């Protein structure tokens, strides 16, 4: 396979940039910071975990509603980069704002986190859609997997710096409080994210688009309505989205709730941060490996492999008791989380009509985000009913089973591509 192009590498580098947000804000430092703030305010561990789950659900619901509409408008020439820039700016700004909210204001922290999450996820809708502009169908699996691989590698650098500052603060080696150390981590995230997004802004452009026309908003709604009416024409694409709806729900919930889960089990914050760091390091080569194996065994086959691994994760989580158990669980997650996300993105990108990529990635977003509502709610409600977070995590296995069953009905990649080309 030939070398990666400047456009491909610039697109990949955004994964390097925004993955700092994923690990520090979504997964590691912010959840611990929030949990500490909630505990100081007298909120129980199960309730604070539930509130975090509800917050994630609210953020994803808002974006799910906007995704298809904005995506359809963004298919017009020149709009994709504008929408990407808008959400990117919101995400970076509110991530930085987290550093200036008083640590005892847990509700304000959740509100700012919600808006930052909308910005980050919204930017990803258009970033994902840019994959059709930077590479070919034959290279999508490898380029997408390379993005996730670089994302894991890139995220470790600001994560290491953040962990170092937090640990040095805890040991009083640095004369600052734990709270200030976490806030510095939030600022590092925003700066890293903004700085390494520059290659995408400079080198990635919308090559596939619909020519502008009068009343673009009205016509966008008409096109969206037409697509919904003609869903049967895109049977393979929407059948895949239905499978994705279920299995990605479990993947996203495991990622976003992992630190809250570990905290409820009594694992110390320092141990959690170290475990999450190692998870990022291990996940990088596995994400790239999934891309290479997909070229040999097909993307669909490797998606099944990832789903099976996550079923094992959910089962093992139910019996989790010690820090060693959490280490084992984390390594299982690391082996597949990047691969299953990367191949889902590239599999879907191969199926969509390129000129309507934003519209269809809007649907990809709505299916993924509505799924992200169900998972955290399931964990939150189950945790409150049983008083045990591990019961909620175990319940996620149902989502993977349903996703696998539907994925079985999705035609293989070659058949899906052939059917899609007949429509387009």
From TrEMBL:
Source organism: Heyndrickxia camelliae
Subcellular location: Cell membrane
Keywords, comma-separated and alphabetical: Membrane, Transmembrane, Transmembrane helix, Transport
Name of the protein in question: MFS transporter
Segments forming domain Major facilitator superfamily (MFS) profile: 236-424
CDD domains: MFS_YxiO_like (cd17482)
GO cellular-component term (any): plasma membrane
Key word Isomerase present: no
Segment forming the signal sequence: none
GO MF annotation terms: transmembrane transporter activity
InterPro entries for this protein: Atg22-like, ATG22/LtaA_families, MFS_dom, MFS_trans_sf
Parts of the chain that traverse the membrane: 12-34, 54-76, 83-101, 107-127, 148-168, 180-201, 236-261, 267-290, 302-320, 326-348, 360-385, 391-408
Membrane-related topology note: Multi-pass membrane protein
Chief location category: membrane
Stored Pfam families: ATG22
